[in-house]
Amino acid sequence: MRSGQKQSSLLKRGYTFDAFMLNQMIISGRSLLSTDARAMVHFIVVQNKKSLQRLEKIHGFSSKENGEAAAAILILADIEEDEFWIENAAIAAAGIQMTAERFGINHCRVQMRNRQDENGNDLAEQLQDMMQFPSKVEPVSMMFLFNACDQHTTIMSRLNKIHYEKW
Fold it and tell me: Is 66 within a domain?
């Protein structure tokens, strides 16, 4: 989507990022992968408010500090394709996270692999019931995306953590 085209329903609902940014995040995540790895890593984009609330409940994630999530991206991998499926999905997630940073989008990455709820139930099974992905696909992480933040403040806070030559 070009910037002059019709913007997504996210922007119409008052959120400050659009479908172009969302697509760029996924493209960035995929671009870090080898051609073979691209075939095994999958993404599910969630924008429906009820689904987002359900995802937050499944993970036990609280977004009170950031406000309501505008979207979430689930990063999944086909566990039968390659032995490096965890690494490839993690690389894709890092690419998504770096692009969200570049756009100034508040985000929170949560791990989904080998996670259980307070009753010891597997979160991957709960996600599979909700999202209907095949059993050979494993959720590795999930990125909650929030309203864009003040980019100047964000950049300055990051620069304050960089030290040259000595502390």
Answer: yes
